[in-house]
Known about the structure:
Blueprint: H1 10-19, H2 22-31, H3 36-45, H4 53-69, H5 80-90, H6 98-111, H7 123-127, H8 132-141, E1 147-150, H9 161-170, H10 195-204, E2 208-211, E3 228-233, H11 235-245
Antiparallel strand pairs: 1-3, 2-3
Helix pairs in contact: 2-4, 3-5, 4-6, 5-6
Amino acid sequence: xxxxxxxxxxxxxxxxxxxxxxxxxxxxxxxxxxxxxxxxxxxxxxxxxxxxxxxxxxxxxxxxxxxxxxxxxxxxxxxxxxxxxxxxxxxxxxxxxxxxxxxxxxxxxxxxxxxxxxxxxxxxxxxxxxxxxxxxxxxxxxxxxxxxxxxxxxxxxxxxxxxxxxxxxxxxxxxxxxxxxxxxxxxxxxxxxxxxxxxxxxxxxxxxxxxxxxxxxxxxxxxxxxxxxxxxxxxxxxxxxxxxxxxxxxxxxxxxxxxxx
Length: 261
């Protein structure tokens, strides 16, 4: 059995016996099967003894979940300089929150030798700047290259698929067929009126780019109206999706209009 006080400062060794809950001790013992250095990383994260037992349990559970996402054959020790800042971010996250799952997914890449190269250090600061809708947009853009979106400027008609279809009909463009597999559907977002803000923000972060090639946009069919634009993930954005978003059940985090209040 692993001594939970191993490599802790001597002066806090006795206190640590009481500071860690049974749940944390069991987690440390389990992750020690991956390696002593992995257990040490978790102990370092929990070293401030003023943590509440509940917070310790949560952080230990997140750490364990991230570790177990990697297949045993691919499991490696995460670099402490990578893992500890993520666990620090998780201190302030609510259980079950979408951003919590994004942080855990990024942490899991550090445990997986097949994915560790995807875990760019910039991703940690990017996650904290994203809204759930922006994460959904990133995931949507990963489905195809590129995708069109309507309404470069905010407008009421571009906030729903029904509004877009009705607007095109009023403009005499009802013959223009929309392929929603190649078009950003505003119905997928909690706050579709901010889609243009999301696009601009993700562009500023280097996550997405505008595609000007007419081959990829419906704009050529809209004539002078110029209301449809093509966007795609950059290589950096695709890397972010692969490390932090891919495989997450985003449908679990869809919020209904009633939940907005």
